[in-house]
Each structure stands twice: as structure tokens, then as C-alpha cells.
Amino acid sequence: MRLALIAHDEKKPELIEFAKNRKADLERFDLMATGTTGKRLQEETGLDVERKQSGPIGGDMQIGAEIADENCAGVFFLRDPLTAQPHEPDITALLRIADVHSIPLATNLSSADAILDELVRQLESETRSHR
Ligand SMILES: O=C(CO)COP(=O)(O)O
After folding, report:
1. Which end of the chain has fewer CB within 10 Å, C or N?
2. What are the residue boundaries of the MGS-like domain, all occurrences included (predicted)?
């Protein structure tokens, strides 16, 4: 099962903290991230993360394409609600395609915890049914 992790600059510390707290659960999934988020996750948490382009140069669109191809089971996207982003259309497109495909999408830490709990539950029931 593949998950995407993304955070705007002001929110990266929160996402890193979440990833450290939930490392044991997150490392059971195939993780991907936008470029700078992925680099920081690798360096600061030791998680194995596939890195896409940085968000402003196409990373959000690459994650969106993974969703469209049904290669992404959940998105953790901590957005900065107080800073204008040059690639706002890409961000909107990513949120839209997640809704089109009904992909669980967390935009804050309490929903991130709840969604990760549910995805772990799904992963475990998939593993059981393949035994
Ligand atoms: O801009 C982003 C999401 O919209 C995140 O990109 P980075 O992870 O490269 O900072």
C-alpha cells in the first residue's frame, strides 16, 4: 500500500514530528513525498521515501498522477493556510483528484492520526486475507 506525505515549509516541522511519532506504522507502507518534504523525512526520520519533484515544480501533480493511476491509498498533506503558494492550481488539482478517487486525505495532525490508524487496520486485514 502506497501513501503520500507532503507539507508546506511552515508545516514541515509538524509533519516530521508526526512521522517520528508514527514511524513504526509508516514504515509498513511504501512512502512517497514531494521533493523537499521527502528529503527532510529521509534525513530526519530515517524513513525510506520515494522523492518526487518539489511541489512548486510539479511534485503535487506527480502525486496526483499516482492517485489517478490508483497507486496511492492515502495522502497526508499539511498545507500552510497562511502563506500564498505560487503553485496553488497544482495544490487544488491534487485535492480534487483525491476526492475524485475517494482517497483518504489528511490536512491536519488529528485527521492524519485517525487516517493512519484506519490504513494500518486495512493493511492488517489485507495481510490476514492473503495468508
Ligand atoms: O509545495 C509543496 C506542496 O504543495 C511541497 O513541496 P516540497 O516538499 O518540495 O517542499
Report:
1. C
2. 1-131
Task: Summarize pLDDT for 24-33 with one digit per residue, the tens.
Answer: 999 999 999 9
pTM (predicted TM-score): 0.96
Sign of CA dihedral 13, 16, 17, 18: positive
Q: Which domain holds residue 85?
A: 2-129
Q: Using a 6 Å cutoff on CB, does residue 59 contact ligand 1?
A: yes
Q: What is d(CA 121, CA 126) in angstroms, rounded to the nearest whole number? A: 9
Rounded distance from Cα 83 to ligand 1 centre (Å): 13
Number of structural domains found in the chain: 1
Query: What is the CA(37)–ligand 1 centre distance, in A?
Result: 6
